[in-house]
Prior knowledge:
Blueprint: H1 7-31, H2 37-42, H3 49-60, H4 63-76, H5 83-108, H6 113-121, H7 124-156, H8 163-212, H9 219-225, H10 235-251, H11 256-263, H12 268-284, H13 286-299, H14 305-308, H15 311-318, H16 325-363, H17 369-393, H18 398-409, H19 413-417, H20 427-445, E1 452-453, E2 456-457, H21 458-482
Helix pairs in contact: 1-8, 1-16, 3-8, 3-12, 3-16, 4-13, 4-16, 5-10, 5-12, 6-7, 7-8, 7-16, 7-17, 7-18, 8-13, 8-16, 8-17, 9-13, 10-18, 16-17, 18-21, 20-21
Amino acid sequence: MDKGILGTQGTIFLVLYLVSLIGVGVAGLLKSKENSMQDFYLGGAGFGVGILFLTMYATQYSGNSLIGFAGSAYRNGWFFLVSVTFMVAIVGGYMLYAPKLYTLSQKHRFITIGDYIRHRYKHQLLTYLIVAIGILALSNYMLTNLKAIGYILNYVTGGAIGFAEGIIAMAIIMVIYESLGGMRSVAWTDAIQGVLLLAGVLIIFVVIWVEYGSIASNEVLLLQLKADFFKEPLLMDKIKWLSILIMIFFGISVYPQAIQRIYAAKDSKTLKRSFQLMVIMPFLTTLPLIIIAIIGAAHFPDLDKESSEQIILLMLSKLSHIEGMSYVITLFIAAAVAAIMSTVDSAMLAIASLFTQDIYHQKRPDASQKQLTYVGKAFSWALMVIMVYLAITLPSTIWWLIQIKLELLCQISPAIMLGVHFKELRAKSVLYGLIIGLSFTLVFLLSPLANKIFGFHAGVIGLGLNALTIYLHHRFSSKKILQ
Length: 483
């Protein structure tokens, strides 16, 4: 591994691919129609099915999908196949609110999640609180994926690209093409990265299935080496997965960058078709990765937690003697890096728009569209500098950071999902629910107390208290009004 599994030619290819993305940023700049927030942060709100689907796909399937899911499947056994339902659940969350939100966004020209909250509830504190949660969660998202990209580049190049150097180089590339073309450039690079991700996963799946055999053909070996691999999940395991399912359904589906993509759809039919395509992607992305990890457990039975994250790379490296395998390895690494980049650039764009539209613009209502766009670009550069520094210096584990993001994001889902359906719902009910749910979640996340209550994550319990508070306050305040 000292020479790195990517090799000189593979490293050159990867570097050239990454640098070429700046050209996409230039193309996005040339395609821009006007220097406005709507054009820069939503790409003119005219994405067709192809681009919209691919940018949503690439954004949803981060580096954790390729690295983290496979590692979790290796450690948890066959029942981690349940994770396929997690990814399907995200689309279910979208469908709960996206069609109505899209209609509103076209009528009122929303750019951010804050625009909707401000329009719907007309409550500045509630808007600021939800925007702050969105910025915090997305900053967290950027941080985890920048760390992941540093680890991957350092590992696959055998240290030729250092952890810090890899993060810095990737950050510079992303912030350049994002500053040039905004959402248009980000969506186009996402489309390229989405194709690369899907092709990479399917080709690697076929190669490993052919060379290592199916799950059935490895079952005897698995039972000999890891007797508990096919064990029946315990009740606490089932509660844990239910808790994660709830977090993902209500957390990931309200990502601010995902909501921006809803706004960016050309029309409602385009949005609907994109979601229809998204439903099948867990079976073409998550499922193959889980199967690969299960097969890998039979051939690499004694990996620790850190090594298990590299299970797919280990399996491919063992086949390096096969002609053409270097291309497959390069493809997988490029797909993993592409998945991470599409996540980071989308989060960065969303944070910049939240700051510019929902904080700066509210303080400077007379600012021109040109000035607002400039402020957003400058903020993106400043944000990336901070995130790169934190990614290099902070020791926190990736999973712990991801967990915080989801548990916090869960708390804003009632404001969105209930808000589009119940016109009589008032701001104070949502605000009190958010404060209760957020406070409960943070107390457990930031204290020595156990993070799970009867197997459920603190954020899930917090979400329940959030919804209950909204219901009770709405019911009793409505009675007072009637009296």
